[in-house]
Specification:
8-stranded mixed β-sheet; 23 helices; 6-stranded mixed β-sheet; elongated; alpha/beta; 634 residues; 18 strands; Esterase/lipase family protein; AB_hydrolase_fold
Length: 634
């Protein structure tokens, strides 16, 4: 091309298409489509889950011409700008600052014993979250649908979890009479707690870090605060032999509160205090003159206790009479004693332990109404001992436990108690609410020529085993797959082989020897005395089972049967759960009877647990007088 491009007109003809092409290629706004799953992932992303700031914090930084890289490199300048720049409402400012400080803490957190700078960053995060939740114009309830609030609560919970973990390592080394101390530039007030443990806590485990196998559900209560399990040391082997055991694993909810009564005061404070709350006692906590629901994890302490218990091996060693088993019954409290909650006492079966109730007790904890009104005691006993021996010892253990916690006998917890027993535990539960009268003395093969003195001593020895009356504190009982009339399975070859492996407890053997001596007549001839172990005791021909099968249950006790039905064929009366015949588990006069398709371990079925929940709710209504008198007793 020659000449002036403008005069000849060829330059404009080239520029117009080029300009149009540039304008199209350099458009300021573009659009793309995300898959729904990516949308959800993007909305949920934050510095905890992805180590990237949440979308709301990124937008806040964009307003101030900042970005995540700048804030990581020049953290102090970034947070200074976010804290003081105009153009942000307080909610956006505080939520962004909480996440920024959490990001800084996470980058420097190297393990359990974090340094002071990391501790300070977690406290800053918690304080900004606390200010956002309770000192901005809108209340938490008014922001209930805000995704930002859900994230801020998560930031707060995570920060509290890490702060309290560091404090737990640090503060016990301080004097027991301290009221405040300094840590990482903060004034830390002595924790305010209503937590009850039988001894000083040796572990404090965040519930969020625990995962369980063998539990169907994990039951939590949504609310404010971070969930922990407080662990006390085991009972010393040389400790006094009390028959009860207070819980080693206790639920705790931790809340950090900061000094100040206004937003400005909270943002300026360097004072902090831990509220350590028992979620069984506290359903809410007061913060900034506002009552807010208190969060909780009720399954975590129970699951951790079972996981660490060693019950599986210990119960087998107890059955066989080997070392490492238990020698006498214990009453295990599942939560700290509460005089205002009704008590449910659970008794496991042969060759078993509290693990028999693994999901039963947990599902009770999952029912809010039951959790508010009941506490669970589990009786753990050596299943090698004869039923008569366990019955006497369990009764003594329960009586001692009741006297210890309620010496005046006035607490709600020791009235309207309920017994729940599975298998052999069901037989024991029935006998605990039955009257023997003089009907069991026929079991004693007395010699004909015993002196009056010997007869008196013999009576004194045997009376605790052969004469008993119903527990006056109990007004309801539930029997699950209980062989009240024994089972022919106990006579089968395999059962008899197992019975041969079982050793009677040493104390029982000594007692039998003493009684045998007393049975001898003046001529030195002893009447034979045979004592069955627990397996033989469950035979449908065992003398003790035969003698006790029709003992009268107290008229003041309402009782229920839950019975398994395994591979049904023929009439119900001829069926069984694979171990216990229906005819043995059935009791006339029961307030209710439910037959559930199940093997002998019927207590673990969802249907049995639902039935037990139903019975407990009705029992609660009767105990509270909400049912008419005619419905309170069978």
């Amino acid at each position: 091309m020659r000449g002036d491009p403008i005069r000849h007109g060829w330059l404009p003809r080239l520029l117009v298409p080029a300009l149009l092409l540039c304008l199209n290629a350099c458009a300021m706004v573009g659009v793309s489509r995300l898959k729904p799953s990516d949308v959800v992932s993007e909305q949920r992303a934050d510095v905890i889950g992805s180590r990237q700031f949440s979308d709301s914090t990124v937008q806040t930084l964009n307003v101030l011409a900042l970005n995540a890289k700048q804030c990581t490199k020049s953290f102090g300048s970034c947070t200074e700008i976010v804290e003081h720049a105009s153009g942000l409402d307080e909610e956006r400012r505080l939520s962004a600052l909480s996440e920024l400080w959490l990001g800084r803490a996470l980058r420097s957190d190297r393990g359990p014993m974090m340094d002071d700078a990391t501790l300070d960053a977690y406290l800053q995060c918690a304080r900004y979250a606390y200010a956002y939740l309770f000192y901005t114009r809108r209340t938490p309830a008014e922001r209930v649908f805000d995704q930002r609030q859900a994230k801020v609560i998560a930031f707060y919970d995570y920060a509290v979890e890490r702060v309290v973990g560091r404090w737990f390592q640090e503060l016990p080394r301080l004097s027991t009479d301290w009221t405040r101390t300094a840590l990482a530039g903060w004034t830390v007030l002595r924790p305010d707690t209503d937590l009850h443990t039988r001894a000083a806590t040796t572990e404090l485990i965040p519930a969020s870090t625990l995962r369980f196998k063998g539990l169907r559900n994990v039951y939590r209560r949504d609310g404010f605060g971070t969930d922990f399990v407080a662990v006390a040391p085991p009972v010393a082997t040389d400790a006094p032999a009390a028959p009860w055991r207070e819980p080693r694993y206790v639920a705790m909810t931790g809340v950090l509160v900061f000094g100040g009564h206004t937003l400005d005061e909270v943002l300026d404070t360097r004072q902090v205090q831990l509220l350590a709350r028992d979620p069984y006692l506290d359903a809410s906590v007061t913060i900034a003159s506002r009552s807010v629901p208190l969060g909780a994890n009720f399954t975590a302490p129970y699951g951790l206790w079972l996981a660490r218990s060693g019950f599986a091996m210990q119960s087998v060693r107890s059955l066989l009479g080997r070392g490492g088993g238990i020698r006498e019954p214990r009453v295990l409290l599942m939560q700290p004693w509460d005089p205002n909650r009704l008590t449910v006492v659970m008794l496991h079966g042969l060759a078993s332990s509290p693990e028999a109730w693994v999901n039963v007790a947990n599902e009770m904890l999952g029912d809010e109404a039951l959790r508010r009104n009941y506490q669970v005691w589990q009786v753990y006993y050596p299943t090698n001992a004869p039923i008569a021996v366990n019955l006497m010892q369990i009764r003594r253990a329960l009586d001692a436990t009741i006297r210890h916690f309620d010496p005046a006998g006035t607490a709600r917890a020791t009235h309207d108690m309920m017994l729940v027993g599975h298998s052999m535990g069901g037989v024991l539960a029935r006998l605990l609410v039955s009257s023997s009268g003089d009907k069991l003395w026929s079991l004693v093969p007395e010699g004909r020529n015993l002196s009056a003195a010997k007869r008196a001593r013999l009576h004194g020895k045997l009376a605790p085993y052969l004469q008993f009356s119903p527990m006056p504190q109990v007004d309801e009982a539930v029997f699950l797959a209980a062989p009240h009339r024994g089972t022919p399975m106990a006579r089968h070859t395999l059962a008899r082989w197992v019975a041969e492996l079982i050793r009677l407890p040493l104390g029982v053997l000594k007692e039998v020897a003493n009684i045998s001596d007393l049975l001898g007549d003046e001529g030195g001839k002893s009447a034979p005395l045979h004592v069955s172990n627990s397996v033989g005791n469950l035979s449908d021909t065992d003398p003790f089972i035969v003698a006790t099968e029709n003992l009268p249950i107290s008229p003041g006790v309402r009782y229920h049967s839950i019975i398994g039905l395994y591979k049904p064929h023929g009439p119900l009366a001829q069926s069984s759960d694979g171990v216990v015949p229906y005819a043995s588990a059935h009791l006339a006069g029961a307030a209710s009877e439910v037959v559930i398709p199940s093997w002998h371990s019927v207590q673990e079925t969802p249907a049995a647990i639902l039935e037990l929940r139903r019975i407990l709710r009705l029992h609660l209504q009767r105990a509270d007088g909400k049912l008419p008198p005619a419905a309170r007793r069978p």
